[in-house]
């Protein structure tokens, strides 16, 4: 069995899609998958499913959802005759979803990012780029795009979005370091429009344009960022961005180690806080 949450919720038994259809079951399964290998307290499950308005029957209804999810997981085992790759255990005041190695796309994503961080520290940016391309390729849209989310899932998904963006920045950095500046310009133009105050993405676009012989366009990217920061936040670009702008004006050599996070930077967090 294999589970996907980096996109629409999907539970696969071989080629057979066994994803629950009932909204509350899907919501509970998503919460348990995000906490795979950890006990999720009954009260947390209730908070996620009903927020501040749980029904009087919340605990018994929760037990029904657990039973239905467990039945789905067991049916896959009985069909294949194999031991369960994913199974749901009842623990003291909570539930634990045990997931076998390589059976959840989020775990695969985390493993690839960790391997890429080691390649980065070793200075092997081609390997880093390859691993991060594979990690981001596991995403098929917004995480849990078709699941109704309560307060706990919303917090986790906010953290996952930030993590994905951080990994994307790291991948673009790796691509810049191995000379793929021409190929990155289109992608970075889209990203800087999506994140108009994000300095690092703008720095990456400026470097890609500059190395492609488009200094005037790189300077315009800085000017656009400066206008946006002033208008929306009442701020000026950081000293790092101002230094990059000055170096471009002076046609100075531009290296990623000066303007972008390097191998010694803080690793991208894979688990949201809270």
TrEMBL record:
Key words of the record: DNA-binding, Transcription, Transcription regulation, Two-component regulatory system
Signal peptide: none
CDD domains listed in its UniProt record: BTAD
Pfam families: BTAD (PF03704), Trans_reg_C (PF00486)
Keyword Protease: no
InterPro entries (UniProt xref): AfsR-DnrI-RedD_regulator, BTAD, OmpR/PhoB-type_DNA-bd, Sig_transdc_resp-reg_C-effctor, TPR-like_helical_dom_sf, WH-like_DNA-bd_sf
DNA-binding feature ranges: 1-99
Gene3D superfamilies with a match to the protein in the record: Tetratricopeptide repeat domain, Winged helix-like DNA-binding domain superfamily/Winged helix DNA-binding domain
Residues in OmpR/PhoB-type domain copies: 1-99
Assigned protein family: Belongs to the AfsR/DnrI/RedD regulatory family.
Name of this chain's protein: OmpR/PhoB-type domain-containing protein
């Amino acid at each position: 069995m294999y589970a996907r949450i980096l996109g629409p919720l999907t539970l696969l038994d071989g080629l057979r899609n066994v994803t629950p259809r009932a909204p509350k079951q899907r919501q509970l399964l998503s919460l348990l998958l995000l906490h795979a290998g950890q006990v999720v307290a009954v009260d947390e499950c209730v908070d996620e499913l009903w927020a501040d308005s749980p029904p009087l029957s919340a605990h018994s209804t929760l037990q029904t959802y657990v039973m239905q999810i467990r039945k789905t997981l067991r049916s896959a085992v009985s069909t294949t005759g194999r031991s369960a790759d994913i199974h749901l255990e009842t623990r003291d005041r909570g539930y634990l979803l045990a997931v076998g190695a390589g059976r959840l796309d989020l775990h695969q994503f985390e493993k690839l990012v960790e391997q890429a961080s080691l390649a980065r520290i070793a200075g092997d940016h081609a390997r880093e780029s390859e691993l991060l391309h594979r990690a981001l390729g596991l995403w098929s849209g917004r995480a849990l795009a078709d699941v109704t989310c309560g307060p706990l899932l919303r917090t986790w998904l906010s953290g996952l979005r930030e993590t994905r963006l951080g990994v994307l920045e790291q991948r673009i950095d790796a691509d810049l370091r191995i000379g793929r500046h021409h190929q990155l310009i289109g992608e970075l133009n889209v990203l800087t429009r999506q994140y108009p105050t994000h300095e690092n993405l703008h720095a990456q676009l400026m470097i890609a344009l500059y190395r492609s012989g488009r200094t005037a366009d790189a300077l315009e990217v800085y000017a656009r960022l400066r206008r946006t920061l002033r208008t929306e936040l009442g701020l000026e670009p950081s000293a790092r961005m101002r230094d990059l702008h000055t170096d471009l004006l002076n046609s100075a050599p531009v290296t990623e180690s000066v303007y972008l996070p390097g191998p010694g930077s803080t690793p991208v967090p894979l688990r949201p806080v809270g």
